[in-house]
Write a structure and sequence with these properties.
Two copies of one chain form a homodimer.
Chain A (H helix, E strand, L loop, with lengths): L2 H8 L3 H9 L6 H14 L5 H8 L4 E6 L5 H16 L3 E6 L4 H13 L4 E5 L4 H10 L3 E4 L10 E4 L1 H14 L5 E5 L4 H12 L7 E3 L4 H13 L6 E4 L2 H13 L9 E6 L12 E4 L2 H12 L10 E4 L2 E3 L7
Parallel strand pairs in A: 1-2, 1-3, 3-4, 4-5, 5-11, 6-7, 6-8, 8-9, 9-10
Antiparallel strand pairs in A: 10-12
Chain A binds a DNA duplex (16 and 16 nucleotides) through helix 2 and helix 4.
DNA sequence: ATGAAAGCGCTAACAT
DNA sequence: ATGTTAGCGCTTTCAT
């Protein structure tokens, strides 16, 4: 079922079908109507591969995320899909498992699919910058957990987000405020900055990666040292939830014995027990800005990552 | 950067490049090496659109899911991606929001992309069957929440899953066992069947859709009527978590005051408080079987949905 | 306002 | 073992 069939049925040439469909040239109203009828009758669907081949543009975008075990990641994918679809793009979502060699392979696949742009989400490396640049693809970074030289794109100001989270905890009067998360993360520096600005000695750091297992393990340590702690700032909703289980198992009350503020603002934070006060990352805006990048309408310095602000969402875990 | 460039650099015709790449014809070892060198030197990447146009097969699969606010859905997407990638397919994931008109549009898009198959996940309607059949695409249903005439594919035996969950609750000695979930779901019948088989009067049904808001609202009702309840079976991990918050807010202890078994076996059930005993849905096997369908190697009755068994994963919420 | 025709990059006969 | 070539469905000059 091709354009040719439609053209024949409508009694025109295939060019006219294109004109009608794409508005590429003026078409007489009667002709256009006949063409549309023929399309309907035949149930014709344009062949996107042929179009992509001819046009050199696939109207396809690639997104590489580390995984989908995290509601925040899933939400981010969804936000990208929504933004992309609004612009007429479909999106190919791929999972790297945080493995940079894998990212390289996936970039190959995306290049082969002739995607019009690639978004590399969350996990980014210098190696990835090299691969992506070499691929010749248009690309941008989406909400990277760390700034990498040579990467352009959009993210959230993690340091500032951690600062407002910690400031809120200080505002409650907590003086001994710990940190749960990876110690190389930008969030530690925001946490420490808030504490130091208030003249308070930083509490302990509970090192943990962004996995539920690790969050749980860290939570056990937090519970064990709860006597020296008023509160903790936890780097993500997902690990906060896992830590929460350990903290409850330790017989502690949140926020009574220990207050918590976390990060992400995903649905995981809303119906946990207690509901988590968290720093919401504006995923919708993030997705839109990232597309602006890919589609070349972001007037921005090369090699720079635009930082959006997170917003404190107050619920119960902080003691409010 | 095309096949032609590679061929020239390697001093062969473009056909030989194809032969080398696809093993479509014997190639002299020396020639093959030269071709591979040329490919590497030029950083050549085959054009998937051209290939799809020529071959009439895109090596692309479409998956339509209702949303991604649910970790179970996200996990399912991931499982499909893994299974598909293992077979050399990329997957286009699309979100319907559970809206059947939307599903129709997405099917159009997928048809246009010349996907080799479509998986319609979770939410399925007779209307969808019509649209999909009319599209001429190869399709199957993936883990539908209800059986629809004309739909082929693979799912989980929800009734049986609910039965083993409820039987476990009965085994604990609970006699008043409620149900939380949509009352039109197959899980109610499994729940009721287990109860009736044990000669126990079915407990109350707390009607609720599969959203966190609804789960929370239902949880409030459960808490309010906890005096007449020993346990509840809850239709999904996601709503169980939301209900858990309401139940805790009601000052109840789980499983002390009220035992819970839920459904899905997603990561959301593992690090909740308490950890949820749940019926695990074998998403990996589901994805693989669904692909078998699409790729035509499933020797199965047309119009039939193969049912896989869920497996009880015992954690703390049941009282074990 | 419409038609004819070339060509996007690839594969698969068919030739050699 | 390798080269030639037609054509997949589409868009786009360039004619008319």
């Amino acid at each position: 079922m091709t354009r040719r069939d439609v053209a024949r049925l409508a009694g025109v040439s295939d060019a006219v079908v294109t004109y009608t469909l794409n508005g590429a040239a003026p078409v007489a109203v009667g002709t256009a109507a006949r063409v549309r009828d023929a399309i309907r009758v035949l149930g014709y669907t344009p062949n996107a591969s042929a179009r992509a081949l001819r046009m050199g543009t696939s109207k396809l975008l690639g997104v590489i995320v580390p995984d989908a075990t995290n509601l925040f990641t899933a939400d981010l994918c969804r936000a990208v899909d929504r933004a992309a679809r609004a612009e007429g793009y479909d999106v190919l979502t791929m999972y790297s498992g945080g493995d940079h060699a894998r990212i390289g392979e996936l970039v190959q696949v995306l290049a082969s699919r002739q995607v019009d742009g690639v978004l590399l989400a969350l996990v980014v490396d210098e190696q990835d910058v090299t691969v992506l640049d070499a691929s010749g693809l248009v690309w941008a970074v989406l909400n990277p957990t760390e700034a990498v030289p040579g990467a352009r794109g959009v993210g959230v100001d993690l340091e500032e987000g951690a600062r407002i989270a910690t400031e809120h905890l200080l505002w409650h009067g907590y003086r001994s405020v710990g940190f749960v998360g990876p110690s190389k993360d930008a969030r530690v520096v925001g946490w420490r900055a808030a504490l130091e600005a208030a003249g308070v000695e930083p509490g302990p750091i509970f090192e943990c990666d962004f996995t539920r297992e690790e969050g749980y393990r860290a939570g056990i340590e937090v519970a064990a040292r709860s006597h020296e702690l008023d509160a903790v700032f936890i780097g993500s909703d997902m690990i906060a939830n896992a830590a929460l289980r350990a903290i409850h198992e330790g017989g502690l009350d949140v926020p009574g014995d220990l207050a918590i503020v976390s990060f992400d603002g995903s649905a995981e934070a809303e119906y946990s027990w207690p509901a988590l006060t968290t720093v919401y990352q504006p995923i919708g805006a993030l997705a839109v800005r990232a597309l602006d990048h890919l589609l070349g309408r972001q007037p921005q310095q090369p090699g720079t990552i635009a930082l959006l602000r997170g917003e404190l969402v107050i619920r119960s875990s902080c003691g409010c």
